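Appendix B. Chain record.
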Amino acid sequence: MKNLVLKNAQYVVTVNSTDEILRNATIVIENGIIVAINPSEIPDYEIFDASEHLIAPGLINTHTHLAMSLLRGWAEGVNLDGFLERVWAAEGAIMDKQTCQLGTELGAGEALLSGTTTTLDMYLHPDATHTGAVKVGLRHVCGPIFFDFPGLDGLEWSQRIAFAKRWPQVFKEIGGAQTPIFFMPHSVYTDSAEHLTEVAVLGLELGARVHLHVSETEAENQMSANTHGKTPTEVIRDTGILKLPTTYGHGVHLSDSDIAISLAHGASVAHCPGSNLKLGSGIADIKHYQESGLTVGLGTDGCSSSNDLDMWSVLRLAAHMVALKHSPKDVDLVKIIRAATIEGAKAVGLEKVVGSIEIGKEGDLIAIDLRALHLTPIHNVAALLVFAAGRSDVTDVWVAGDRVVKGGTLTKIDEAQLRRRVAERLVVLDSLS
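Structure tokens predicted for this chain:
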């Protein structure tokens, strides 16, 4: 943990309860915690001169598969079914534990460099992925994956349950920035109702939260109707999953009844506009979701469907999709920013820890250089963040006060060495091209 002062920031976007934006503000962090904003006296700590910067909370990616960064551009011109067919074949060829860790290091590095400090990451071998993310410095939310079948990790159902029982201790031993325990059944089309019930019971026993894909496509909804006579939301309600705090990956096609059920159980939606558009999955009506009271976070999905982990493009697309589905006057830029920060934190159970710049919260912060011509002039800070700023504008990143990006460079790992390791491992995919 670090003691530091971010001094005289041109803007501080707090995302507090009143969405306050401060001018020429100073932030003091002690042992990773924000202890003062605009103090009368500045302590003798490490100083970051923020006079030409905007300081904001780190972005929170509420649905991704970091290790799939290794398959960037691997499945193009396909819908979700075609995507899964092609990607699962590649994953079967390379995604052992070591490769999952390597891919997560790559994804975590990309995320941090772009200003994302927290990710809700669903992938194989979570012990390996968590090790890789912690190594790079990311606040990494993950957990055991559940499929009915052995899958790419080769685990039988009984082995999945046994690993899930051990997960809290495994997670604790790996360490890293504070995050809650999650269980991650993939979806209602890969996990039977009986198995989902078993996950729910164990999750309640261990105090876990849940993340799974829900109503990503109309085809998924139809499959659920054919198999269960219910929507995916009704399935997870009736199996007990919604007794645990649950985050839906995508949630594109939720009916009004699904929204009411989700709201009654405190579920959240991770909106992934880029992936949904690229795969032709549809446009989630997040304005309707938000107005109904649902918590909506933003996500990138994995790099083999979205091709990058750029949350800035996600903010932009989320705004554009509201304008397209409703009208430009219905785009609430502050709500879009909140979805990428404090609402995302709420979706992953971290709203008391991160997601806004307030005294008592951990110092997950990003610095945006305002000297770029494309950020000049500044008439509207919210519009600047949603429509103009990008990942290349992020110069420095802190996670719990630890400077994990300095001057646009990762501080925990050697980027050139990481690229070499990735190139060496992916030679095996040549035979599948």
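Further analysis of this model is presented in Appendix C.
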